[in-house]
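Final report, section 2: Outcomes. Of the targets proposed, Aquaporin Z is the one most frequently requested by collaborating groups, and we therefore present its record in full.
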Amino acid sequence: MNKRMAAEFFGTLWLVLGGCGSAVLAATFPGVGIGLHGVSLAFGLTVLTMAYAIGPISGCHLNPAVTLGLAVGGRFSFKDVPGYWLAQVLGAVAASALLYVIATGNGSAIGGFASNGFGDHSPGKYGLGAAFLTEVVMTFFFLMVILGSTAKKAAPGFAPIAIGLCLTLIHLISIPVTNTSVNPARSTGPALFVGGWALSQLWLFWVAPLIGAALAGTLFPKLEE
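The predicted structure is given below as tokens.
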């Protein structure tokens, strides 16, 4: 279990550093900013690369919602959920700490620091209801793709590609709404450094993704029957 938790720690660190780092450092860089499309691709690439790197060790969850969805779907032991969640959150916090040091290295303030939010803190000013629905639905389909692409009948070796592209698509859809979470650990790391509004809205980015993941974990096994 220690090796699996270590893999989840470093994998989640890479996801947050790569995904949120692209949003904080490169999205709006003058002249060459990568924008929404680049940030979306960055998040997808972090999962794709780590799936090949640590998938054989821990399964490469990198996300408390993924861990819960796999447990509900009968693919993961519930007794191991707390350990995975701890490793994932710690990895996200470590990545956010590294990103904070880098982002402030030129004297800049961190601003929103890629935090997730709704209302005034949504990129498109979307309200609570739209944000909650978006996070539930996006996480639901993320888990459906994960469960399907890793099923015994699925073509071997291609799951990381499908999962990485799915996460890219999810970001293309939902960055304007919530800045895209679908991952409570990813939301927690930046929120701890922003404080204030980010922490007060963090509950949504735990509750909604976990609901979406649990729904997918419940439904998908019925489709396989």
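The chain has a mean pLDDT of 96.
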